Amino acid sequence: MEIVDDIELDRRLGARIKALRQSRSLTLDMLAERSGVSRAMISRVERGESSPTAALLDRICAGLGIFLSALFRDEGHGGPLARHADQPVWTDPASGYLRRNVSPAGTGSGIEIVDVEMPPGARVLLDAARSAHRLDQQVWVLAGEMIVTLDGVEHPLAAGDCLQMLLDGPIAYHNPGSLPARYAVVLTAPGRAPFEG
Questions:
Q1: Which residues pair with 126 in a beta bridge?
Q2: How far is 125 from 36, CA to CA, in rounded Å?
Q3: The pTM is what?
Q4: What are the chain's domains?
């Protein structure tokens, strides 16, 4: 298993963001306008000089026209099997939540699974504008408790509960408990036929 420290992970995230921006023929200024993130901050992230939060990455991803999960996908190591030791892991520096991309990359499947551990009391708000991009996802709580707020409506979830949503606006995740919470996020882009070919 390859051990990646935070500095190396920041560098890899930055390189991936830059490559995605350039593949879309976007300048720093254009991405700044589309994402609502300053040009200077995007430049720092691309150079690996900043440890971006989940909220910041979410805004940048919205500006790129992708979802946060796509940023962590390692397409260079594709195949039908993703061993636990090889699944990309990232920790949000603001909330301490840990996300693991479980699904094998590079398979062409329209389904992705993300495993999340949320520390007690932690809160994450993803509020990027998603006018042109919507995501069908389900949150399945495996341990602990969570409150998911979507369109201003709070959904208290206990272990075993599953919430389906069409994500096209701000969403907040909060662990109100005194113990860590663990949940799986299963997502697919609407209109894709995940079981084709």
A1: 171
A2: 15
A3: 0.85
A4: 6-71 (1.10.260.40), 82-188 (2.60.120.10)
